[in-house]
Amino acid sequence: MLSRFSDVLQTAADVLAPPATRYEDFQYHWKMIVNFYQAYDETSKVHIEDTRVPHHLHQMFQLIVDEEKEQQGGTVGPCLEAVVQRSIGVLDALAVLAVTDRPPGARAMALNLATTLLRRTQRPCINSVHVYRPLQRMLVQCNESPASPTEKEEVELLLTICGLVRKESGLANIFTTPFIEDKVSLMSIPEDIQLLIPVKRKVNKPKKNPLFDVDMTPPIKMAIVRKDSSNNSVADDASVKSQKTVYDDNDKFLLIDLLLSYLNSADNQVVLRACEGIMIVSSLPEDDIANLITSCSPCCETIVDKLCFKYRAIPNDVDPNDVDHLNITWAYVAQDFGDKSYNKFHGYRELTSFFSWLDYCDTLMKECHPTIAAHLARTFRSNFLEGVESWLLPASNNSSFVHQAALTTALLAKCLRVIDSSDLINEFSNWLVGDGEVSEWPLLLALINNCLTEDYDLTLETLRFFETIIERGTEHSMDRIVVSRVISRGYYSPPAPATVDTDERDRLNDLSFGRERDRNREAMKQLEHEDAINEQISDILSHEGLDNKEQGENVENIHRVINRRLLRLKTQIEDIMELENLKTASN
Question: What is the pTM of this model?
Answer without folding.
Answer: 0.71
